[in-house]
Amino acid sequence: MEYLNKVAPSEQVSVNGRFQEIIGSSPALKLSLAEVECVAPTDSTVLILGETGTGKELIARAIHDLSARRERPFLKLNCAAIPFDLLESELFGHERGAFTGAVGQKIGRFEMADTGTLFLDEIGDLPLALQPKLLRVLQEQEFERLGSGRTHHVNVRLVAATHRNPAEMVARREFRSDLYYRLNVFPIVLPPLRERRQDIRLLVSHFVQMFSRRMGKQIHSIPDETLAALEGYSWPGNVRELQNLIERAVIRAGNGVLPNPLLRFENKPFPMSQTGISFDDSQREVILTALHKSRWVIGGPRGAAVRLGLKRTTLITKMKKLGIFRPMPQDDEEEFLGKPENERLWQATG
Questions:
Q1: Topology agreement, domain 27-190 and domain 194-349
Q2: N or C: which end of the chain has fewer CB within 10 A?
Q3: Distance between CA 18 and CA 8 in Å, rounded?
Q4: In the CATH scheme, what architecture does the domain 194-349 have?
Q5: Facing residues of 158 across strands?
Q6: How many Å apart are CA 129 and CA 7, to the nearest integer?
Q7: CATH number of 27-190
Q8: What is the b/e burial string over 64-81, where b = at least 16 CB atoms within 10 angstroms of the residue's CB?
Q9: Where are the domains of the chain?
Q10: What pLDDT was estimated at residue 78?
Q11: How far apart are CA 120 and CA 234, in angstroms?
Q12: pTM assigned to the model
């Protein structure tokens, strides 16, 4: 249960010497990081592929930090977050009067990133109308601002990322094939968290320490049952989802024990894991494991409630909702119910 105290300081920060912000030591992650080290010293375009929340921006920054451009600008732009009518201006800039509302000159991201690295996230959401202009910058390293005929030359390394499958988008004619081939010079695929489950404990420890410092809270232990539940979850939102749930758990933590954030999905369908276990079944399994380990003692310093990071009354409510009842002892029923504390607990859960 005292998991935080078992993790060496170097492991709590990072286990990758050259990747200080990337936590994990799984073979799948190491393979991706080896690709980063291989391509970073070059000026080649990189396309980072991976599900939402896998840390694509961290990888893009690592590529920049390990390159000869590390002292130069690193700029980022999420193509899905900018309205279509503003995206061209964000990328290439505009002159005063170029369109209604253009009251002054604007420098675009390519110009701002000159001699450095530009990270274009969610490149799969780039409108078809803008794709030829991006292709030209990649091929010729030149562009014009909106409302200007002057050609600007830049020296920018492009790193792009998407959670979509660009090859399928090309097949559906939703993405230009020539741009895709130009972006896909060196693809790096990031594994989802479900394929690097051995990193979950390190990530949990890292996030617990990060958020407890920010909130001024002392979290000294993470129950084994909580760690087992987190390792068994399918994580459709990947590391970002884990980070958010750990932040929520630290906020709710009491007595220095991290509660299981997966027990807080009230009245919501539980995201299905690869084994197809329902949310109620998952909760029931976690609670029963804690009850068996505590010999069905619910309250007290060694009770199941403490193991799960829950209040005693909250655990009893969940047990009733899930139909979990204390099994009646076979051999010593009279002695068992003769103890006032056991009789109260039997009545509470029975």
A1: no
A2: C
A3: 18
A4: Orthogonal Bundle (1.10)
A5: 118
A6: 51
A7: 3.40.50.300
A8: bbbbebeebebbbbebee
A9: 27-190, 194-349
A10: 96
A11: 28
A12: 0.74
